[in-house]
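Hey, I'm writing a tutorial for new members on how sequence and structure tokens pair up, and I'd like a real worked example in the thread rather than a made-up one. If someone can provide the structure for the chain below, I'll link this post from the tutorial.
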Amino acid sequence: MKNLIIVASLLISLPLFAQTKVVKRNALKSNNFGITYSLPKTSLIINAEVKKSTCKAGPYYKYAEKYLGVKEVVTEDKVFYELGKITLFNKGVPDPEQTYIVEFKGGTVAPYAYLTEEGLLCSINAEYAPVESEMDIARKNKSKAVRVADASVYSEELLMAGSVAKQAEVAAKQIYRIRESRLNILTGDADNLPPDGEAMKLVIQQLEEQEKALVNLFTGIIVEEVIDYDVTLTPHDDLDKEIIFRFSSLLGIVDADDLGGTPVYFNLKATDRAPMLDEKEAARKEKSLKGIIYNIPGKANVDIQMNKKTLYKGEVQITQFGTQEGLAPVMFEDKRSPVKVYFYPETGAIKQIIQ
């Protein structure tokens, strides 16, 4: 566990991550024409979708085949879980060891920068409008689970029936009467037809709801909901079979050290890593960095598995595997045509330079 930090959170109500907000910072005489910013380090967010199914048996399930001809019914109350889609998001967080002050010369034309609220660099000398991240978009596009309410209807005749067997017989007769009434309305054979199309639609809808509620007494109901489980991981080296959580069909997602579930393994292998520098080289490199310091991220392959089955596979940028470079201060001293620079706030890398 020396090479990573893991934080897990359960998101049952599917909240959205707050969209990035940016703040404009001007380099003025009052702050010595300096702007302080931070470079990000990579924090990976692993999102797992879990479908929770809550089954509730109907009181007349034993008579479903006899009266309704239905064989597939819920026969006992139970809850079970299914592990769904695994998604990986790259989220940059400020690295306290990579905080810089960019100083502009007094003659520079109105220098300014846009930073996130956390202090990550977004742009220099350029207006910046934050865009939704992949994570924000994915959260917003998820449809919330629709709960099926148990709207069982117990008529006086049904309640007075006595035994369960007699109640089931009465309920089945009510179902067939509702079906007959609906058919008569649709075919125009009913004695009192609805006055117009809207009224007919409403009556049909009410009959269907009554029928469904009565059928539920035989078939039971299954309520399904999607639960989001997030694990935040900050890697500093390759990872091999790191358990990020465990999964059980009876318990859902449980902690990594809970033996009640099957382990889900996280593998990360660097494919593009900056060469390691010795102490002297690192000191020389740090001394040479001037101007606007930015990240050149490394890359890694990610593989997430359970029971030797791949749940997710892809490539991700890791700033911890990369290096830093600097934009020369002289680039920003042209009064006639100030250079505009855009950055990826998630990685600290340069997105675009406009001259």
